[in-house]
Write a structure and sequence with these properties.
- Helices cover 7% and strands 51% of the residues.
- With 459 residues, it is mostly beta strands.
- It folds into two domains: 235 residues, Pectate Lyase C-like; 202 residues, no CATH class.
- The protein is elongated.
- It starts with a helix and ends with a strand.
- One of its GO terms (biological process) is carbohydrate metabolic process.
- Keywords: Glycosidase, Hydrolase, Signal.
- Belongs to the glycosyl hydrolase 28 family.
Length: 459
């Protein structure tokens, strides 16, 4: 278990957010979309009826907009308002339209459900919001689907021109709980410059073979709690990003994650700082486990990963990652980019079974500083047939580098403490590997401390 100081640091934040956000979330005012003309047959657009109910709810001072069951409510973008909670009843589905005309002109506002500049808006109800992501697959592939692109105006990037599922932009006191978010065409749940958000008991299901269908992206948003969530998707599952401002006071607890990419990933958008983040009691089955891709000059500090169990395996190299359980990197995206630092990161009570080792790589002007591993159990074995012996720096930097396999690879580090760390090598499954417990690439490596570190062979 994490030490008492860690628990004391995280608990007040969690309690404060829950106290601030939850009261008043369920108003007595209920506005059924059926009363405003919604049909719910899955083929006729119910956008006008849903939006009318939302606007009436806002005019009345707030409450709940109900999508009753049974019903499949096809819609273009629904714009939430302040103090309006969209309630999708169990057995009901909100279906996102698949036409570009169903969304606003600006690609940055392409969401099935969108809240901008709101206070106290949210989504709940026990039902489902479905982005019909399968309709955006041009060529299905078990390696990586080829996706549709709506890049007609040039204001978005290549095949990433697809609508997101649910977005809150420049909003505060956000409430998202007891809801299933299914088949996003692009990112699933997106917070942008939001403050004071609780995401609780949310299930996210994306196509395992589709790129860019991230689970939860926390962009420039602060004072966020994620708890009791189930995320099963192709791309990054929980992804803090700093594009226009810092990210601080993020707590994620009691979650289950499966992904073909990175389970928890900082960046790669990292122009501003990340500070005071806690990830605790999380189970992971992924390509890459705990990752930081700091590429744009922002700094990371005071981050705790605790009580985490994971399995990481190789997938096709079209997906970023090479099965690393822990991947902490900072380097310039471009030759003229700034280099950020990563400091005061703690890994406590971590266990993994992985096809590759821990990867800790700073850069010349962006050292990794004061990393601590305490009570960490790392088992290395192979069970897929994908090529090993590669380190993956993408995006930017050195891209893919051939290298010996190490239990830990260290580069540009000042301050690393190892306390009760065990490496277990399943030698029978590692035939052909050139493995070493600790590998150093030529660079600054100093202030290392090893206490109770073991490297042992297992069957």
């Amino acid at each position: 278990m994490a030490s008492p100081p860690l628990q004391l640091a995280a608990t007040p934040l969690l309690l404060l957010l829950l106290v601030v956000v939850v009261p008043g979330a369920r108003s007595s005012r209920v506005f059924s979309v059926v009363d405003y003309g919604a049909v719910g047959d899955g083929s006729h657009y119910d956008t006008a009826a849903i939006q009318a109910a939302v606007d009436a709810c806002e005019a009345a001072g707030g409450g709940r907009v109900l999508l009753p069951a049974p019903g499949n409510y096809l819609t273009a973008t629904v714009h939430l308002r302040s103090r309006v909670v969209l309630e999708v009843a169990p057995g009901a589905r909100l279906l996102g339209g698949t036409r570009q005309a169903d969304y606003p002109p600006e690609s940055r506002r392409w969401y099935v459900v969108l809240a901008e500049n709101t206070t106290g808006a949210g989504v709940t109800g026990g039902g489902e919001i479905n982005g019909q992501g399968e309709a955006f697959v041009v060529t299905p592939s078990e390696v990586k689907n080829i996706m549709v692109s709506w890049n007609a105006t040039g204001d978005c990037l290549g095949d990433e021109c697809r609508p997101r599922l649910v977005g809150f932009i420049d909003s505060k006191d956000v409430k998202i709980h007891d809801i299933t978010l299914n088949q996003p065409a692009y990112w699933c749940l997106h917070l942008v410059r939001c403050d004071n958000t609780v995401i609780r008991n949310v299930s996210i299901f994306g196509d395992f073979n589709s790129p860019n269908n991230d689970g939860i992206d926390i962009e420039d948003s602060n004072n966020t709690v994620i708890t009791d969530c189930h995320i099963d998707t192709g791309d990054d599952a929980i992804c803090p990003k700093s594009s226009t401002g810092p990210v601080y006071n993020l707590t994620a607890t009691n979650c289950w994650i499966r992904t073909k990419s990175c389970a928890i990933k900082f960046g790669s958008a990292s122009y501003f700082n990340f500070n005071k983040l806690l990830f605790d009691n999380i189970t992971i089955d992924s390509h890459r486990g705990l990752g930081m891709q700091i590429r744009d000059g922002g700094n990371v500090s005071d981050v705790v990963f605790s009580n985490i169990k994971m399995s990481t395996r190789y997938y096709h190299p079209l997906w970023w990652g090479r099965a690393e359980p822990i991947y902490i990197t900072t380097c310039p995206r471009h030759p003229d980019s700034k280099e950020g630092t990563i400091s005061d990161i703690r890994f406590i009570n971590i266990s993994s079974v992985s096809e590759n080792g821990v990867f800790l790589a700073g850069s010349k002007h962006g050292l990794l500083q004061n990393l601590k591993f305490k009570n960490v159990d790392l088992t290395y074995k192979r069970w897929t047939n994908y090529t090993g012996g590669l380190y993956d720096y993408r995006p930017g930097c050195e891209k893919m580098v051939k290298h010996k396999t190490g239990g830990m690879m260290l580069e540009h580090i000042s301050g690393l403490e190892i306390d009760n760390v065990r490496m277990r090598w399943a030698r029978g499954s590692l035939k052909g590997w050139d493995v070493n417990p600790i590998l150093f690439r030529p660079s600054t490596i100093d202030k290392l401390s090893f206490h109770d570190w073991r490297s042992v062979d297992v069957q």
